[in-house]
Amino acid sequence: MTQWKNFTKGFLRENPVFILLLGMCPTLGVTTSAINGLGMGLATTFVLVMANLVISLVKDIIPNKVRIPCFIVIIAAFVTIVDLVMAAYFQALHEQLGIFIPLIVVNCIVLARAEAFASKNTVLTSIIDGVGMGLGFSFALTILGGLREILGSGAIFGHKFIAGDGILIFVLAPGAFIALAYLIAIVNKINKSSI
Amino acid sequence: MKKESTFLNMVLTLFGVTLIASASLGYVYELTKDPIAAAALEKKIAAIKKVVPDFTNNPLDDKEIKEVDGDEVIFYPAKNESTLVGIAIETFTNLGFGGTIKLMVGILPNGTIKDIAVLEQKETPGLGDKMQKSKSDFSMQFNGKNPANYKLKVKKDGGDVDAITAATISSRAFCDAVKRAYNEYIMTNAK
């Protein structure tokens, strides 16, 4: 597999949200607007890249039986760093995302990439995998958030273009499921026709 | 590639990993402690500035904390030179649809509400979160009203407040928080 393919697989072929269906909790929880989706996606990307980097570096010195606790400690450390830095410099976004930032620790996509990829591959390949997967995750969350924001509030990235209320159900929890289901159907269609 | 697990190397690895992780977290915490505190303080001062007329003192120095209903209502008196120009009251309610709501209510010396800012809310996006000024004009209707002759209840409950459409619970909670601030204000003045 070339590095380019390794990088692009996160967008469509192995998109964490649309294909692997991993990390559904933040996906459904925070995507009430495009900017929330993007912020969550980028925070997760940072954690993914750093966790993949460190885990691929230390994979040979970690005994097999304690690898999962070690991975979790490494991931949790990076998540806490993101949480603190966001609270210090991106207050507004930090308040919007709230509890979902600390919850990146238990986002299974981060542990999945660590266990299934970074612990078996070289440093460079793992970083590229982290960037690709992270951007794929951000891409999916931004699309989903954008769709819900357009339909639910008549706005995109906070810029209102339709006066009045949108279809309110799309900013509520059921709207997340409905919008995600349609997006998954579209992505499946695209993937099928491209094979 | 898989390393053999022995008791000693497992203990040592876990110790090493947690030691490095906690050391780096301590470092980042020290680094971000001041910006986080500064951001929180700035937000509070910005909220006070929004709800009372121009002041020259530091309202945070003169704050008075009052225990009400198991939580705190905090008074921030705003003074220009030495005359009181208004009081910013940090108030709360637990009746919100998404839990606690915190407001900053500005009351002028004559008892009228100057302005209200939302400090903290977890109401439903698109419905209850319209209590924020950036989302709708709901909170503006309190401006210039004196709760002595303005009933702080939604119209459905026989009051004078127009509720947010489809968010009666959030609107009721908002009124409850404002009312709590006003009651404290009256009680303090009566003393």
Q: Quick gist of this model?
A:
The complex is a heterodimer of chains A (about 200) and B (about 190). With about 200 residues, chain A is an all-alpha fold.
Q: What are the salient characteristics of this protein?
A:
heterodimer, A: two-stranded antiparallel sheet, 8 helices, 2 strands, B: 191 residues, alpha+beta, five-stranded antiparallel sheet, 36% helix
Describe what you observe in this structure.
The complex is a heterodimer of chains A (195) and B (191). Chain A has helices at 3-8, 24-30, 34-58, 67-89, 91-97, 108-118, 123-153, 173-194; strands at residues 155-156, 159-160. Chain A is an all-alpha fold and 195 residues long. A two-stranded antiparallel sheet of chain A has the order 1-2. In chain A, helix 3 (34-58) runs parallel beside helix 6 and helix 4 crosses helix 6. The radius of gyration of chain A is 17 Å and the shape is globular. The model of chain A has no long low-confidence stretch (mean pLDDT 86). Chain B is an alpha+beta fold and 191 residues long. In chain B, 36% of the residues lie in helices and 24% in strands. Chain B contains two helices and five strands; from the N terminus they run αβββββα. In chain B, strands 1-2-3-4-5 form a five-stranded antiparallel beta sheet. The interface between A and B is medium-sized, with 34 and 30 residues.
Topology:
The complex is a heterodimer of chains A (195) and B (191).
Chain A: H1 3-8, H2 24-30, H3 34-58, H4 67-89, H5 91-97, H6 108-118, H7 123-153, E1 155-156, E2 159-160, H8 173-194
Antiparallel strand pairs in A: 1-2
Helix pairs in contact in A: 3-4, 3-6, 3-7, 4-5, 4-6
Chain B: H1 7-51, E1 64-68, E2 71-80, E3 83-96, E4 99-107, E5 113-120, H2 168-190
Antiparallel strand pairs in B: 1-2, 2-3, 3-4, 4-5
Mean pLDDT of chain A: 86
Q: Looking at the structure, what is the overall shape of chain B?
A: elongated
Poorly predicted ranges of chain B (pLDDT <50, ≥5 residues)? Answer: none
Radius of gyration from the alpha-carbon trace of chain A, in angstroms:
17 Å
Percent range for helical residues of chain B? Answer: 25-40%
Estimated structural class of chain B: alpha+beta
Largest sheet of chain B: 5 strands, antiparallel
Q: How many H/I helical runs of chain B?
A: 2
Distance between the termini of chain B: 77 Å
The tally of strands of chain B reads 5
- Ends of chain A: how far apart? 17 Å
What structural class do helix, strand and pairing data of chain A support?
A: mainly alpha
Total helical elements of chain A: 8
Q: Which of globular, elongated, flat, extended, rod-shaped describes the shape of chain A?
A: globular
Radius of gyration of chain B: 23 Å
Largest sheet of chain A: 2 strands, antiparallel
- Going across the major beta sheet of chain B, what is the strand order? 1-2-3-4-5
